[in-house]
Amino acid sequence: MTEEACCEPGDCETGRLRIGAVLLAAGEGARLGGRAKGAIEIEGEPLILRGLRILSNAGVDEVVAVTGHYQSEISPLLAQADSLFNDGCLVEVTQPMGGHSQSDSLRLGVASLSQEVDAVMVLPVDMPALTRQDLISLIGAYKHADAAIEFVGPMVGARPGNPVLFSRRIALKIARGEGDFGSGAWRHQRPEWLLEWQTDNLHYVADIDTPEDLDSWIP
User: Fold this and answer.
1) What are the CA-CA distances from residue 124 to residues 99, 135, 142, 165 (Å)?
2) Measured over all CA atoms, what is the biggest interatomic distance in the chain, rounded to whole angstroms?
3) Cα 158 vs. chain centroid, distance in angstroms?
4) CATH of domain 19-215
């Protein structure tokens, strides 16, 4: 990636953002009893395919799906999603056995995107409520933000949500291992380039971390 972006926040009313996405699906699912979140079926659709479908429908140009634990279960599902994207626009990368933190996944995924993307969306695989329109709304908030804004994340009340969307400059920092972007702790510092986009849409904070969460989706 290069530092210059063809379309920055606040300057995209008429220009088109080329968006790359990182779909995080490498986790162990320890709080869920140790299972592949991406393979969980909600309304008959595995979460990994659900995430890829809404990314495609929202117009995301390329996707890197980061796998790790349970790769043998997730990779065959990814193969079913090739038709959602143009050739070469859906790529799977797998974390080495030594690194399975979310920061590792984020860095690996961002570094694997092409140099052509203007902005990067990061989507955890375990968010079954999200829709195409939710992603489009986030993209709109990013495009029409003030020029100084380079990172947009939904906030539902006091709860930070997902997905998030950020500039290529921040993507470069992540790829270099600069900053503590994987943990989210840096958001408490309220940097001037952060927009905590206030919304009452609970889809942005509905995830599946525990058996109780899963029970609310699968009777």
Assistant:
1) 17, 13, 19, 12
2) 49
3) 20
4) 3.90.550.10
Is residue 80 helix, strand or coil?
Answer: coil
Instruction: Name which of 109, 115, 118, 175 is nearest 142 in CA terms.
Output: 118
* Dihedral-angle region of residue 70 (phi above 0 means left; psi in -120 to 50 means alpha; beta otherwise): left
Question: In the structure encoding, which two tokens stand for residue 58, read together?
Answer: 């929202």
The angle formed by the CA atoms of residues 4, 53 and 127, to the nearest 5 degrees, is: 90
d(CA 33, CA 40): 13
pTM (predicted TM-score): 0.88
Tokens 């690194």 -> residue: 99
- Structural domain spans, the chain: 19-215
DSSP 8-state symbol, 20 = E
Question: Each residue of 43-56: pLDDT tens digit?
Answer: 999 999 999 999 99
For residues 194 and 148, the answer to whether their CB atoms sit within 8 Å is no
Q: Over pLDDT 90: what percentage of the chain?
A: 68
